[in-house]
Amino acid sequence: MSASFPHRHLTGIYGLQPHEILFLLDEAEQWIALNRATSKHDDRLAGLTLINAFFENSTRTLLSFEIAGKRLGADVVNMQVGASSVKKGETLIDTAMTLNAMRADMIVIRHQSSGAVQLIADKVDCPVLNAGDGRHEHPTQALLDALTIRRRKGRIAGLVVAICGDILHSRVARSNILALTTLGAEVRVVAPPTLMPAAIERMGAVPFHDFDAGLDGADVVMMLRLQNERMDGAYLPSPREFHALYGLTPERLERAAPDALVMHPGPMNRGVEITSSVADHPSRSAITEQVEMGVAVRMACLDVLTRGRRGVEGWA
Amino acid sequence: MTGTLAILDARLVDPAAGTITRGNLLVRDRRIAATGSFDLPADAETIDAGGTHVAPGLVDLGIFAIDMPAFTAGGITRAVLMPDQSPPLDHAALVQRAAAAGKPDVWVHPLAAATKGLEGKELAEIGLMKAGGACAVATGRGWIADSGVMLRVLSYARSLGLTVVSHAEDGGITAGAVATEGEYATRMGLPAAPAIAEAMAVARDLMLAEQTGARLHFRQLSTARAFDLVRDAKRRGLPISCGISPAHLLLSDIAVGGFRTFARLSPPLRSEDDRQAALAALADGTIDLICSSHDPQGPEAKRLPFADAEPGMAGAETLLTLSLALVRDGVVTLPRLIELLSTAPARLLGLPGGSLATGAEADLVLFDPDMPWRIDSDHMASRAGNTPFDGLPVQGKVIQTIKGGVLLR
């Protein structure tokens, strides 16, 4: 730990200072260049063991962390536990203690329950990185989104960012609200009332139920994935009604600022929350760039969080 | 026949008179034989209280586990057992066995399950369970969703002269929820339900109680809207009562911060506004009694992600200690507090105890209301240490629990 990033774990954006978030973004910049080179390798994590413990199904995030670890030279082990086979937390803590006993140098965790990552972080000796816990936080997603926005727009402070869709169940929305408001953006959240969490304005976001009003003049439009099981009548009447009211179409996008950036954390439900023509728009869509930034941000996080145990000067 | 016991130089807290007087108390044949000043019988065993307080032993309405060491440590002499046991107390034989479980020390008074298997569908054999020793009927941890079933439970219980103890949370609204809707649940990403779920259940049950004339007790209420409904019902003269736990009087939903599963309770902790309303309802008499809702849960149920953990807290041994904060804060007087913890629950369910009158059962608690100590979940008498007050410095400690004139260890 050093003054630049005085945290042992990265369990969330909550509690991070603006300069700490910017430090991680700055650190990520160097890895973008490396990742675009022919030889994508750095040895700074050589000899360290990175365990990706995913208790919830994931392809993209797991792959992103695996690539990030390997490009920095770490020995990467993936442990994917199906959502059903390990559900009870005593097993969760037992699993954490097992990983700890195997002397992992860094553990990346995804879990379906809010707070599960903190529970493990309190029990193990090595740094723990949250790759998504329940509806709580997904900090590297917020960092990669912030990096994408900063590179495209040149700044974050003063921008209007509209986060749209299933805010209630979204850890991406929570981490992004925290990160972007901390960095000075105006954050709006747009959702039908059934998918809007209570008191969201207390987190610094401005809630909208009307999609057009929420999009009005926005510099960034961030769409969220809508889980299929939310659309069966429990929260929403049907996918087509959601698309009609909250789907991002080219016409809808006209409401936003003329050069508005379109983002999506993936995987997309094309034709539901976003139409293909918007998602694939050559100049407006930053969706593939987000994936690219994801690897760079995760490399930065793995590097920074292991500096202490690697004996980097100034990092206790 | 037990011997004669004289407690000398005590501060006698008499909830009936609303007084604290310095004096002696004589126990003979398990009953209070005299208070104040009397001639000390030659055969009396004596305890020099040295000015500490003596009050009727606590009557804890609605505990989930028979946990004698915790009751003894907490000054509880009678514990009213929830039917949520394994198997549920929905049969006279099970009730009879539970009623005998505590004797001769702390007495356990079982509540009969209102419905078979506590499933909220078919009436259980309430009449036979009454004969087996059930002191009232309870819906259990859950709410009876079917209003028709609840109507029949209330009218049936009324015909038997039994109070119905109800859990007030509208299950449709609280399904899947583990916290009260609000800023903290939103920040932490916890499934949450709006606080009105409680008042909605209260409103329905009040109407059904009024319709049937049944005595209805809400085991734990925690929201301003629910207290308003009960206050109004009492004003109209309905036989309605409600309880609360110290946790809901002393903590708000901020306490679930950091995903502390010891603060996962049922009903969940509420907003600060609701907590303030609870204090007001306690002060104005809307709340009839304070209970621990003692529910010890080991690490296998609590060392989990918040939403996966079981609700409930081990509250028996800290019931008096935590409640004494309400006296220091000027919410209630000490005699009134003892009424809330002892006399009121005993009277509500027609149980002996809760009195310092001559001839009453010698169920007593000796306590020092000022003694400082620290709650430590790793060192509790209770079967498990799941208390959201872990680490809290507190004042007030039980020195001795006496049941029927016998000193409990």
Biggest pleated sheet of chain A: 5 strands, parallel
Instruction: Give the terminus-to-terminus CA distance of chain B.
Output: 20 Å
Named CATH architecture of chain B: Alpha-Beta Barrel
Sheet/helix structural class of chain A: alpha/beta
- Strand tally of chain A, please? 9
Show unreliable segments of chain A: none
Write the CATH homologous superfamily of the largest domain in chain A.
Aspartate/ornithine carbamoyltransferase
Number of discrete domains of chain A: 2
> H/E order of the elements of chain A?
HEHEHEHEHEHEEHEHHEHHH
Q: Which spans of chain B have pLDDT < 50 for at least 5 consecutive residues?
A: none
Describe the 3D structure.
Chain A: Heterododecamer (2C3:3R2) of six catalytic PyrB chains organized as two trimers (C3), and six regulatory PyrI chains organized as three dimers (R2). Chain A: Keywords: Pyrimidine biosynthesis, Transferase. Chain A: This is Aspartate carbamoyltransferase. With 316 residues, chain A is an alpha/beta fold. Chain A has 2 domains: 149 residues, Aspartate/ornithine carbamoyltransferase (Rossmann fold, 3-Layer(aba) Sandwich); 151 residues, Aspartate/ornithine carbamoyltransferase (Rossmann fold). In chain A, 38% of the residues lie in helices and 14% in strands. Chain A contains 12 helices and 9 strands. Chain A has a 5-stranded parallel beta sheet. In chain A, α1 crosses α5 and α1 crosses α11. The radius of gyration of chain A is 19 Å and the shape is globular. The N and C termini of chain A lie close together (5 Å). By secondary structure, chain B is of the alpha/beta class. Chain B has a single domain, classed as TIM Barrel (Alpha-Beta Barrel), CATH 3.20.20.140. In chain B, 30% of the residues lie in helices and 24% in strands. Chain B contains 13 helices and 18 strands. In chain B, the strands form 3 sheets. In chain B, strands 1, 2, 3, 4, 5, 16, 17 and 18 form an 8-stranded mixed beta sheet that branches. In chain B, strands 6-7-8-9-10-13-14-15 form an 8-stranded parallel beta sheet. In chain B, α7 runs parallel beside α8. Chains A and B meet through α3 and α4 of A and α6 of B.
